[in-house]
Amino acid sequence: MKVENFSGLTDYAIEEEPELLRMALQASGIAGAIHVLEAVAAEGRDWIVRDQERRQRRSQEWTGYEDDPRP
Predict the structure, then answer these.
(1) What is d(CA 24, CA 1) in angstroms, rounded to the nearest whole number?
(2) How confident is the model over 7-54, as pLDDT tens digits?
(3) Is 27 in contact with 21 (CB distance < 8 Å)?
(4) pTM value?
(5) What does the radius of gyration of the chain's CA atoms come to, in whole angstroms?
(6) What domain of life is recorded for the organism (predicted)?
């Protein structure tokens, strides 16, 4: 969804449009998506494999296991 303006959706006496736009973009998840897209563009298709490895390492560190306890 593209937010172009907040006309009719805001009370300009208490809300400022630039702040509403900043909050809408922050809540949309665009920043996270851009981070992922930049990483994929920089690392290529192997990024998915490396991301899965990173997630597995983080999960093991969080649980305190040295080796993956799954069969």
Answers:
(1) 10
(2) 666 666 677 778 877 887 788 888 788 888 888 888 887 888 888 898
(3) no
(4) 0.41
(5) 20
(6) Bacteria
